[in-house]
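The instructor's notes for this session suggest beginning with a concrete chain rather than abstract definitions. Hand out the sequence below and ask the class to guess, before any prediction is shown, which regions might be ordered.
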Amino acid sequence: MRTEGAAARVRVETLEGGAIRRVVLTGSKGNIIDTEMNRALIAVFREAGGAPGLKAVLLEGDGAHFSYGASIQEHLPDQVAGMLRGFHDLFRVLIASAVPTLVSVRGRCLGGALELAAFCHRVFAAPDALLGQPEIALGLFAPVASMFLRERVGRGAAEDLCLSGRTIGAAEAQRIGLVDVITDDPSGAALAYAHDHLLPRSATSLRHAVRAVRHDLAARFEADIAAQERLYLGDLMKTADAVEGIRAFLEKRRPEWHNA
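After discussion, reveal the predicted structure:
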């Protein structure tokens, strides 16, 4: 194993002679996915899409948690449009890269971090993992989760997570299909899966297989995410409660909802 390269907010390591890349979210408490980290992840996956021998990418968080999610500060009205559209560009690049992507989750995996994890192909979680879409508690909603989470866990479970904002443990997450494997060593289990099931395959064939199983995802994503952005930026962010929820979180107080 050697360190191949690093951006300020991610650390990239090459394993198995270039067949696997471990991408570690880092650089802040809770590995917050802010604009800087998002740009670094886009660069990582854009480059991965052009790496001919790459057969798997493993995402994990530095320290005790995968990620607390997207930056709340960047949800303020003067920043939210650029933040949201940039975050959605990450998913476009993920789709285009067509690389099998595995996720190792320890501790918290919340909000935008769960959107990212659920969008990947296999999720390996520690028993202490906590997963959730808490956006509604801030007066917001999760655009990618709103359109994609039901594909992984079904409409009922997706609506429960998105509407309640509750956080669930690894066992419940596995029961509903959000987590594939629970293990004390999720990173090791993900690497073992890659070694046993992906490395023996052709990298070229794996790319085609990813495109095949998600053949309509790019078109659906473009249509659906445009509608989600219109609802979020054009409607939600014009309400008093969306701004109040964000400011209350940043000011560490309870929100005072106006239902408007």
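Then share the key points. The chain has one domain: 2-203. The two ends are 54 Å apart (CA to CA).
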